[in-house]
Amino acid sequence: MKRLIINTLEHKSIIHKELQGNFSEHLGRCIYEGLYVGENNTEIPNVNGMRKDVVEALKAIKMPVLRWPGGCFADEYHWQDGIGPKETRKKMINTHWGGVVEDNSFGTHEFMELCRQLGCESYVNANVGSGSVREMSEWVEYMTFEGVSPMSALRKKNGHEEAWHPTFLGVGNENWGCGGNMRPGHYANEFRRYSTYCRTYDPKYPLYKIACGPNVDDYHWTETVLRTLDPVTFLNEHGLINGLSLHYYTIPGDFEHKKSATDFDVTTYYETLQKAYYMDELIRRHGAIMDQFDPEKKIGLIVDEWGSWYNVEPGTNPGFLYQQNTMRDAMIAGITLNIFNRHSDRVRMANIAQMINVLQSVILTDGAEMVKTPTYHVFDLFKEHQDGTLLGSYIENETIGEGEWQIPMLSESCSLAKDGSVVITLVNASDSKAEEIEIMPVEFKASDVSGRILTGEIHSMNTFENGEPVHCVELGSDALKTGTDGNITVSLPACSVAEIILNK
């Protein structure tokens, strides 16, 4: 038996709800079919073109924020092509993802309508790579300005009288690569220029401006960008930078030789999970550099692209990045979300890539059919952490794995919810070994204990043919017990993610 000690008196950082954010790019079937089926579609139930089944499923996991329109697509996206009457919108070739024709029927108005239906915050990623300062500035004005101006007049002409209030603005995407192949010093100076002209028109709704940060372990990029930006001055005197992005994908093999999403052995399973754990090192090392320039942690680390990346499913368009989702991906999600929680003093937002039908999706669709992936159910288990307070905790552990791919068996994070309850998420990453854990809350007597669990064999998945055998179930009295001393014992099967709530 392992012990989990929770110090309920040690209140640490806020676990911002945005750590459970999602990402939707104009890529494959994420936007078209996955989210948006058109206002005139009579075969798939929708509200103003947005799929009802998908919207309801995402609302159920309290999805807090959505990033759009990319990704690499963002830095070739010109927002004025996606407004006005749909029959007059410009068509374009999606050069990054499959070479398909984009008709721009899903644009700014549609995205904001989707966020309205979802009840989530909006994160708009603007074009630095092929756009202009004026283009970005006018987009911000179009979306957020209530007064008299050319862009607010254009928005009203296009049918939306009131301004929207997007919370987050990405000033470019992957500008070290598909966003312009820039050097870090050059990008930082471009960010200073672009950000200057992205106004906050209403002080009640300040724009949270996010600079393009590093790809994986490019610590030189982080250091050079921050040194060039002089973030303390920029943040405190000008309010021009609030966040710095980080992109990292969990890839078994390497980027050029990825492995299958469903056909893998135990060694590859542990290889994948070890690479998921690498997120912890990336946050710590990039965070240490950020501490040099921003010791008060006013600038958030924004992990706005993360998740698994495998070979596409056989027979699908290689540019659509469509892959299945198994319990291995549930392990990746659980481990990663626990890492984000434990680093919530620096990590301000995270966005899994991507929401529907692309990479580590939470939902898959096939025409009118929809299926929730194992990853979806992990987000469901973590949602009670949103806006809670991270608690100090320690768990006894052991090392498991195959060959060079060694990982901790157990992963956890604990928070104090606003209603006074203690929320615990636990991951048992072993492919074969169950574990019993004694939960020992310090200075906390639970009046009631409940829990849910997601578990299955490492290859288990949900499919259109077989439905959703992988789903959350209640932890019964045989698996979750309270002792006379107030401690709680939970039995975790192999390959499982659990949520346990201690009510005050």
Description of the structure:
- The chain has 504 residues and is α/β, with parallel strands linked by helices.
- It is built from ten helices and 28 strands.
- The protein has helices at residues 52-60, 108-118, 133-144, 150-157, 184-196, 219-229, 231-238, 266-293, 327-342, 374-382, and strands spanning 2-15, 21-23, 46-47, 50-51, 65-68, 92-93, 101-102, 121-126, 168-171, 208-211, 243-250, 253-254, 257-258, 300-308, 347-353, 363-366, 369-372, 388-395, 399-402, 405-408, 410-416, 422-428, 435-442, 448-455, 473-474, 480-482, 488-492, 496-503.
- A hairpin with a 2-residue loop joins strand 12 (253-254) and strand 13 (257-258).
- Helix 6 packs parallel to helix 8 (266-293).
- The mean pLDDT is 96.
For this structure, the quaternary state is: single chain
Identify the strand order in the major beta sheet.
25-24-28-22-21-18-1-23-27-26
- The CATH topology label is TIM Barrel
Provide the domain count: 1
Strand share of the residues? 25-35%
Shape: globular
Summing up helix and strand content along with how strands pair, one would put the structural category as: alpha/beta
Mean pLDDT figure: 96
Q: How many H/I helical runs? A: 10
Distance between the termini: 25 Å
* CATH architecture label name: Alpha-Beta Barrel
Instruction: Give the proportion of residues in helices.
Output: 10-25%
How can the largest sheet be summarized? 10 strands, mixed
Low-confidence stretches: none
Rg measurement, Å = 22 Å
Q: For this structure, what is the CATH class?
A: Alpha Beta
Count of strand segments: 28
Tell me the CATH superfamily: Glycosidases
